[in-house]
Each structure stands twice: as structure tokens, then as C-alpha cells.
Amino acid sequence: EGGALAEWAQGFERWPWVDFSRCVWPEATAEAAGTEGLVDEGDESFRPGQYPQGVSRYFASLNQPSVQAVSKLIRGGVGSGLVTMSHFLPCRQTLPDWVSPRERGLRLGWVGHGAAAVSVKFSRVAGSVLVDRQAREVAGGVQIPHTHAFGHSHRPKDFVLNGVRYFHNPVGKRKEREFKMLAESPEPQMLFSSSGGAPPPPEREVIRYWEMMGVRPPPSKKKEYWTKEGGE
Question: pTM for this structure?
Fold first, then answer.
């Protein structure tokens, strides 16, 4: 299915992502595509265009001293729970269209909707697996309740995978709320209390909120090069 998905990524180098149009990255970050992204980089068509792979590694290196310091505290018995946070997505299972957190590969049928081209392109700039690696490193192998709260996608998520609860409770845009892509009136949710600890995750996982509401993503109205047929 990788080839079919790659077709939806055509024109990625012309996608008006602000990192491409408003950022100039140091030459030292312009490394060959690696394995830090959320999608399979094995096929040349999946290469992330203008985005230098070294950027995610650089920012991860800035986190590392704090990761190690907090991990040392937790391994020393400090704390009864852990909440890590990031703006960007920590793993591919947190992508908006991912149906089954227990599956490793993106399925073509999961993006069978009017916004497929945007979804596939977004997967290439949504986050980095380095976020997840560092979040889990903070826990230091200690078995304590661990929630990772993230943002960026504007799509609610709440599920547990390999001992970590992944949580996103976005406010989003007015149109997204009208289309029931997320809650019409998002309410704050408690992830940890100094007196009560970490509340349990919901009995029903939140994977694709719009499907829970019985709707489908609306067709994209972006410029034509966001679509599968897009050209120059």
C-alpha cells in the first residue's frame, strides 16, 4: 500500500508549510532522511522534501539534559506519576487517521476520505519518534502511571499503548468543531492530581473522534497542489 499512499504525497515539496517558507535551517541539519519521522521512509517517494532531518535531532538534544535529570529522580523513587508533554506528535499511532494503535503500518483505507492528500502530507511534518523515545526515557523503566499529552493535530486522542496513555484534547478551529472533528465545547480534563494521582483512562478509547460522532472529514478546499492530481 506504500506506493498508493505515496501518490497522495505528490507535490509535497510545494506544500505551503511554514517551516518551508518562513524558516531557514543551518546547513548542519540538512542530513539524509533518517528514521525519526512518523511515516515509513524506506521508499524514496516518502522522503520529506525540503525538511532537513537534522532539525528534530537538534531539538531532541536540547531536551536530553532535562530528560536525564527527571529520569534520575523517578528512578530514585521520587513521584507517584508522570505527565510528559509535547506540541508535536510522539508516534505514528497518534496521527489523526490511525485506526488501530496496535498496528505499525498506515493502511490505505484509513485515508479514504475527501482530505486524504492533506492527511498524508501532514503525516510527514506531524512529529518525530524521538519525542516518544525521550518521553519513555524519562520514566526510566519505572512502572508508574505515565500520560503523554500532545497537540498539533487538532484531533482528539485518548488511548493506552505499551504502558503510556496518549492524550490530546484540542480546542481546534470553529469550523472543525462545527464539522464534529472534535468536541463542540471542549472541557479541561485532569491528567494528574497531587492528592488523587492519575485518573484511569476512559473505558472507550478515543481514536478517530469524528467516527465516534458518525461523520467523515469534509473535502479539502485547499489549493490544488494539495490534492492527488495537483500540478505546478
Answer: 0.84
